[in-house]
Specification:
mainly alpha, 5 helices, DNA-bd_dom_put_sf, single chain, about 60% helix, Multidrug-efflux Transporter Regulator, Chain: A, Domain 2, MerR_fam
Length: about 120
């Protein structure tokens, strides 16, 4: 399938498809005439990429997931582990953001300015 057909079927731009190929998320086969041909499985891979991005996975994380799919169907327990790891990361990020929100709220209510040299800021990491 040519890139134009793939773009139309997936509603992704050609640039996005080329970027995913550059990131080695998908592969193409170069024809004798120089055109790139994408196998049918690329549609499924692009659907997985879109779904994973909507769930908050980074392209590097998606690349690891796609590597698992090349070995066949990912076992359910492994999918659960991937989702749990992502949930744990989200929980950590939420906690960090809540700490930042609390500090900013205190600063807007009259506590010393954090942008001054005499005002220590705790490390949030």
């Amino acid at each position: 399938m040519l890139i134009g057909q793939l773009a139309k079927q997936t509603e992704l731009s050609r640039d996005t498809i080329r970027f995913y190929e550059k990131m080695q998320l998908i592969q193409s086969i170069t024809r004798n005439n120089g055109y790139k041909d994408y196998p049918e499985q690329t549609l499924q891979q692009l659907h997985l990429i879109r779904t994973a991005k909507n769930l908050g996975f980074s392209l590097n994380e998606i690349k690891q997931i796609l590597a698992l799919t090349t070995q066949g169907e990912i076992p359910a327990i492994q999918v659960q582990d991937i989702f749990q790891d992502k949930l744990n990361m989200i929980d950590e990020k939420i906690e960090q953001l809540m700490n930042i929100k609390t500090m900013l709220s205190r600063f807007t209510q009259g506590e010393a300015c954090p942008l001054r040299t005499d005002c220590p800021i705790p490390d949030l990491n």
